[in-house]
User: Which sequence fits this backbone?
């Protein structure tokens, strides 16, 4: 491993870059502007929640609810005639014998490759405690829609005089306690709730579906044909968990990309389950979801946690695109947050870095559109679409996951203050956006890391960046 790959050393290099950067921009003028990050609420009034993501996306009135049977994991398993993960894992083990941890990611020996798989096994096992990933697992196991350990005296017995502002403050604080990096409240737009679940999302056989419906009932319920959500469920508590940014940069496809992903999902699963039990203790319904029940990204946008990028992922102010998202749907009276405008849409119009660096060529260089060019996405929202099939096929062939679009995204950075500055000026001087994307390369962000860095880097528990507030 080269010395520059060590996180501690990177800090020093960043300081040098910082001085160079200030000099480049004219010293004190640039320094004075640092820290100005105009995160603009699209609608700051909690009493009048906007249409949220719909407002940012511009949706057609006939936008339909998505079916979980159309997720890329299901489609690719159908295409291949076998569970995608089974083939992916077989190729991962074949890579070990060839001293590789991804498609073009060599390590010194099979022994070293085995150590990387050992780290992956730890992260993957942690993920399996709650989910894994949550797909098709509505109301299953720890993702139960019913109280598990809540004392009977509290179940279905809320305070007769609820205070939404006080509830909101306490629920956000509980979310942070149980592990969320950031939390926001979305007014639940039912267009983002799946039309139906798919109980066999990774299997090649015919989809086993069950409708997700809203009914005038007091409690969540499940029958042979339906998952039932009470009409009173009007909010989503949305959380994000930061991924290990350094591990995302080992690749493009690598076992370590999968470690970063698995740890993100592991944390999100635990957060969702813990938060749901806390909400039920206040006497309300709570539906922990991970990747099931509803689309995470539009709900996160509604909750004011970020915006949608060209790569089809959430871009957050603090962690860029290197996050995983969880959400708990509830009828607890809460005060919704409004969407924020970081200037992402304008920035992505002139930055195509993720598309240039996508090894499967599944991110568009073109304009936003209402029409999904692939059957793994829904038409009707104005956005950049990605080809989920091509993306997942690459994972399977490589025997390793890819998160390169998250790793190279201009918004995915360490705590270097210059990026706060860059985010600030991208809103006020969008004509410079292309320049900032190239500055990003100048600072060395988004370059592939030596796999050995995972054995030497400094980190906080759960592989978090030690230089950032958790
Ligand atoms: S879209 Fe898929 S293949 Fe392309 S960079 Fe992102 S994760 Fe990798
Ligand atoms: S890499 Fe550039 S174009 Fe892609 S999502 Fe990030 S900012 Fe947008």
Assistant:
């Amino acid at each position: 491993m080269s010395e520059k790959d060590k996180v501690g050393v990177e800090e020093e290099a960043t300081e040098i870059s910082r001085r160079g950067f200030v000099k480049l921009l004219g010293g004190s003028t640039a320094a004075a502007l640092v820290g100005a990050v105009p995160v603009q609420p699209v609608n700051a009034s909690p009493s009048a929640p906007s249409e949220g993501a719909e407002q940012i996306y511009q949706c057609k009135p006939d936008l339909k609810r998505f079916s979980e049977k159309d997720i890329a994991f299901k489609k690719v398993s159908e295409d291949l005639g076998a569970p995608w993960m089974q083939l992916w894992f077989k190729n991962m083990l074949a890579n070990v014998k060839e001293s590789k941890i991804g498609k073009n990611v060599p390590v010194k020996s099979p022994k070293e490759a085995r150590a990387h798989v050992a780290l992956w096994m730890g992260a993957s096992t942690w993920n399996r405690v709650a989910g894994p990933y949550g797909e098709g697992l509505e109301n299953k196991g720890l993702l139960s829609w019913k109280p598990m350990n809540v004392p009977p005296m509290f179940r279905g017995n809320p305070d007769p005089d609820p205070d939404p502002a006080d509830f909101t403050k306490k629920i956000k604080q509980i979310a942070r306690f149980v592990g969320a990096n950031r939390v926001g409240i979305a007014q639940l737009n039912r267009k983002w709730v799946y039309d139906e679940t798919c109980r066999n999302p990774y299997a090649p056989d015919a989809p086993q579906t069950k409708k997700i419906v809203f009914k005038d009932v007091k409690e969540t319920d499940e029958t042979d044909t339906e998952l039932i959500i009470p009409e009173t469920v009007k909010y989503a508590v949305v959380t994000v968990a930061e991924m290990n940014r350094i591990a995302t940069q080992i690749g493009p496809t690598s076992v370590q990309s999968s470690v970063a992903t698995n740890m993100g999902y592991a944390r999100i699963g635990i957060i969702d389950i813990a938060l749901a039990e806390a909400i039920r203790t206040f006497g309300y319904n709570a539906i922990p979801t991970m990747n099931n029940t509803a689309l995470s990204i539009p709900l996160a946008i509604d909750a004011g946690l970020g915006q949608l990028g060209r790569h089809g992922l959430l871009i957050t102010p603090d962690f860029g695109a290197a996050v995983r998202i969880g959400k708990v749907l509830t009828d607890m009276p809460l005060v919704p947050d409004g969407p924020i405008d970081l200037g992402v849409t304008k920035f992505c119009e002139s930055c195509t870095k993720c598309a240039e660096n996508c090894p499967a060529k599944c991110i568009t260089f073109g304009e936003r559109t209402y029409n999904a060019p692939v059957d793994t996405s829904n038409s009707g929202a104005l956005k950049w679409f990605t080809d989920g099939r091509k993306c997942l096929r690459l994972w399977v062939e490589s025997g390793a996951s890819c998160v390169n679009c998250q790793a190279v995204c201009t918004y995915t950075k360490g705590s270097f203050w210059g990026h706060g500055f860059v985010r600030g000026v991208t809103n006020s001087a969008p004509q410079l956006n292309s320049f900032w994307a190239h500055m990003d390369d100048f600072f060395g962000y988004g370059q592939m890391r030596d796999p050995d860095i995972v054995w030497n880097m400094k980190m906080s528990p759960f592989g978090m960046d030690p230089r950032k507030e958790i």
Remarks:
- The longest helix spans residues 255-281.
- Residues 1-39, 43-50 have pLDDT under 50 and may be disordered.
